[in-house]
């Protein structure tokens, strides 16, 4: 497994665990940025819960799955998006209107494209889940 994109790798681990109908998976090494993404996945009920373990500066996450993810992927390159352009990317990455979320890194932190639109923020696309 290549370690060049930790977010992409994390989503691959989650997706494979979901496909195998597993109840949990482990992501290691990880980052606090991934923690922000997991927080959004939990808020939107795509995962049951997650727990961070910081072992001498090496962060790992134990994720409890609930079987609600059909697919999830990191987005590369991390496109810069204006608020007016979200719809174009929703059409590209999500299967239907109001199905799934795109996770965006903005100047006010990591959030869904829905929240970014409400706040009138652009940002960089990180991943999508549905």
Tell me what you see in this structure.
- It contains 4 helices and 8 strands.
- With 130 residues, the chain is an alpha+beta fold.
- The protein folds into 2 domains: 6-65, Ribosomal Protein S8, Chain: A, domain 1; 72-129, Dna Ligase, domain 1, CATH 3.30.1490.
- The strands form 2 sheets. Strands 4, 5, 6, 7 and 8 form a 5-stranded antiparallel β-sheet that branches.
- It is globular and about 40 Å long.
- It starts with 5 loop residues before the first helix and ends with a strand.
- The relative contact order is 0.18.
- The model has no long low-confidence stretch (mean pLDDT 96).
Keywords:
130 residues, alpha+beta, Ribosomal Protein S8, Chain: A, domain 1, Dna Ligase, domain 1, 2 domains, 32% helix
What is the gist of this entry?
By secondary structure, this protein is α+β, with helices and mostly antiparallel strands. It contains four helices and eight strands.
* CATH class descriptor of the largest domain: Alpha Beta
Please give the alpha-carbon distance between the first and last residues: 24 Å
Number of helices: 4
Counting DSSP E segments of at least 2 residues, the number of strands comes to: 8
Give, in order, the helices and strands. Answer: HEHEEEEHEEHE
How much helix is in the residues?
Answer: 25-40%
Let me know the average pLDDT. 96
User: Tell me, what's the shape?
Assistant: globular
Helix- and strand-based class? alpha+beta
CATH fold assignment of the largest domain: Ribosomal Protein S8, Chain: A, domain 1
Q: Tell me the domain tally.
A: 2
